Amino acid sequence: MDTSPKALRNGVPQQRHTESRPNAQAGAEAEFEAEVTSASDRIRELRARGLTPKQIREELPGVSPWVVNCALNRDAKAQASHPGLRARARDADRERARALRLEGKTYKQIRAELDVSSATLSMWLRDLPHPQPDRAAHAAHMHRILATRRNEQREAQKAAAFAEVGEISDRELMLLGVALYWAEGVKDKPYSRREYIQFINSDAGMMRVFLSWLDLVGVEEVDRQYRISIHESANLAAAEDFWRRVVGKPEADFRKATLKRHNPKTVRKQLTDDYHGCLIVWVRKSSGLYRRVDGWWAGILAARGAGGMPN
Questions:
Q1: Assigned domain for 13 exists
Q2: Are residues 157 and 201 in the same domain?
Q3: Of 147, 166, 185, which closes a domain?
Q4: Residue 1 and residue 180: Cα distance in Å, rounded?
Q5: Which of 63, 250, 287, 292 has a C-alpha 20 to 30 A away from that of 177?
Q6: Strands 12-13 and 8-9: what pairing?
Q7: How confident is the model at residue 205 (pLDDT cuts 50, 70, 90)?
Q8: Quick check: pTM over 0.70?
Q9: Does 165 score more than 60 pLDDT?
Q10: Is residue 218 part of a domain?
Q11: Is residue 194 part of a domain?
Q12: Co-location of 151 and 57 in the same domain
């Protein structure tokens, strides 16, 4: 008789191909069945107490491991009564894991929700089909990763550039203000004489730099006038409060706002809570300053080989 694991089927010793004594095998099988029957009650009792097969074998040293396994495998009641080390205590987790698997979740996603190992999940879920890969979710996940990396790179580059600026001298501020004005300010034309300083912008930071430039070139606050240009559908009171804080002087001379007519057919994405319109800064009696700005700009161009004296 062969009692090796490969030779057993459901705990019953099987005949080797070379066995030539069927009567001897039949007797051995009957002996084995009798041993299983006699030990079943005791095995069931130990199983009901929560012992594992290994612990049952330790409690019954004279009983063959094959007898214990056979008795447990044949007795559904003994299987159901065994709480196991984690089985019955984690029935809810097991059912939840199976439900998540049927929803298409991966082992990693299930582990994130349930505190179980991959080995336990494999035992619980091995009979379930593998979920189809969620390509859309994977693409979205990769997009988030790449977006995070790009944002980190973007912020690092900005921080490095910020550190490169350092302190700005009065001369640098003077030239910077001239460039800002020539880009955003009102300029004189041969067909329309406009020799005065008027600067308009919606960017608060740029406006603060321009106001610092006005301080540098000696324009007093009394010679400055401010006007808001804003869509009529926006919050004018909030815009006035915002620009007064940018100017830094509550008593600043604000003229009546210029309201832009609202066209409902136009989709304006800038009309959000952060929209404050544009601030227009006009300097009284500024024709002389304008001509200096014209000359400064021509000097910047000439210094870089891009122009000469203004006309």
A1: yes
A2: no
A3: 166
A4: 101
A5: 250
A6: antiparallel
A7: very high
A8: no
A9: yes
A10: yes
A11: yes
A12: no
pLDDT of res. 75: 63
Contact between 132 and 108 under an 8 Å Cβ cutoff? The reply is no
> Residue 246: CB partners within 8 Å, gap ≥ 6?
204, 207, 208, 279
Tokens 């009957």 belong to 30
Q: Quick one: 243 and 293 in the same domain?
A: yes
pLDDT, residue 130, reads: 84
Name the nearest CA neighbour of 141 among 106, 113, 114, 115. 106
Q: Are 188 and 150 within one domain? A: no
Indicate the pairing of strand 224-231 with strand 278-283. antiparallel
Q: Is residue 56 part of a domain?
A: yes
Which distant-in-sequence residues (6+ apart) come within 8 Å of 3 by Cβ?
13, 64, 66
161 plus 190 within the same structural domain: no
| Each residue's pLDDT tens digit, 216-246 | 999 999 999 999 999 988 888 899 889 999 9
Cβ count near 181 (within 10 Å): 23
pLDDT in tens, 292-308: 999 999 999 999 887 66
Q: Which amino acid, one-letter code, is at 68?
A: V
Number of domain units in the chain = 4
Distance between CA atoms of residues 259 and 233, nearest Å: 9
The whole domain housing 144 covers 133-166
Element (H, E) at 123: helix 118-125
Q: Quick one: 120 and 72 in the same domain?
A: no
C-alpha angle 44-46-49 in degrees, rounded to nearest 5: 110
What interhelical angle do 204-216 and 236-247 show, nearest 10?
Answer: 40
Please give the pLDDT value at position 265: 61
pLDDT digits (tens, 9 = 90+) for 121-160: 888 888 888 887 778 888 998 999 999 999 999 999 999 9
Claim to verify: residue 155 and residue 280 sit in the same structural domain: no
On whether both 298 and 176 belong to a single domain, the answer is yes
